[in-house]
Design goal:
Number of strands: 23
Strand content: over 45%
Shape: globular
Number of helices: 0
Largest sheet: 12 strands, mixed
Radius of gyration: 17 Å
Order of helices and strands: EEEEEEEEEEEEEEEEEEEEEEE
Oligomer: single chain
Length: 262
């Protein structure tokens, strides 16, 4: 019998690996909008749960938004910025986007592969982040046809702390089994105007990485222990395995927002 992996809030710690995983962020503070708004989006590559080292991003290969099945390329809207991490500065990007109509907006980043010198490999985290306007769902659970992606089975902009989030990992459009997915939350305040992480952590940092493995259908489930912005990175799930003669980890990343049910 095929089982979905359920990771509890306390028992989800892997015996191997460190808590400070690499995560590509596509961040904006408000993800459920009642009125038209001009979104301020920040693209940062760092270690959000540890609030550690922030890495330089190369020029993104592609940045686009999908609304009601229509893809709009907004790569040219990106502007380079300097991002202040808790311990260093790094190259990052920002963009603005006007949200006017009701529905789901899926922002997708395909970044330039990042060379991780300590492991002598490249990392490319294909990242999705979701915005909704008008409380009208229009496509949050639809795949985008990316090389690899996490298909959400709960509304990613409306998850409640104490409930669960389930995703299905796809590689070249097919379920990917037995893939390790690392899980983190943004553990610091973000200064949108100052382009910076706050120096202080907001919550605990687990001793080792929080990990879920996908089942035979590419599914994983995680119990959300606290409100916040949670990221899921399924490692090496993409079909591309090499870049410039070196190993490539082509990862699928998704960000969700969890709130307290009041």
């Amino acid at each position: 019998m095929k089982k979905t992996i359920l990771v509890s809030a306390l028992a989800a710690l892997s015996a191997a690996g460190a808590a400070h995983a690499h995560f590509q962020l596509v961040y904006t503070p408000d993800v459920m909008l009642e009125k038209p708004a001009d979104l301020d989006l920040k693209l940062v590559f760092g270690h959000p749960m540890e609030n550690g080292h922030t890495m330089d991003m190369g020029q993104p290969k592609e940045f686009f938004v999908t609304f009601k099945g229509r893809k709009t390329d907004i790569t040219n809207e990106l502007k380079p910025i300097t991002w202040q991490g808790a311990h260093n500065e790094a190259m990052a990007y920002e963009a603005s986007y006007k949200v006017r109509r009701n529905g789901d907006y899926i922002f997708t980043l395909i970044p330039e592969p990042y060379m991780e010198g300590s492991e002598d490999i490249y990392i490319q985290q294909i990242t999705k982040s979701y915005i909704n306007k008008g409380a009208m769902p229009t496509g949050w659970n639809e795949p985008l046809g990316l090389p690899t992606e996490i298909l959400p089975l709960n509304k990613p902009y409306q998850v409640f702390a104490g409930s669960t989030f389930t995703g299905q990992l796809l590689s070249a459009g097919k379920p990917a089994a037995g893939v390790e997915c690392e899980i983190e939350y943004i553990n610091t305040d973000i200064d949108m105007d100052g382009n910076a992480f706050d120096e202080n952590n907001k919550g605990p940092v687990p001793d080792t990485a929080i990990v879920a493995m996908t089942d035979d259908n590419g599914m994983f489930t995680f119990g959300i222990p606290r409100p916040g912005v949670w990221g899921f990175a399924c490692l090496g799930s993409g079909p591309e395995k090499e870049y410039q003669g070196k190993e490539l980890s082509q990862d699928a990343v998704i960000w969700i927002n969890a709130t307290a049910l009041q």
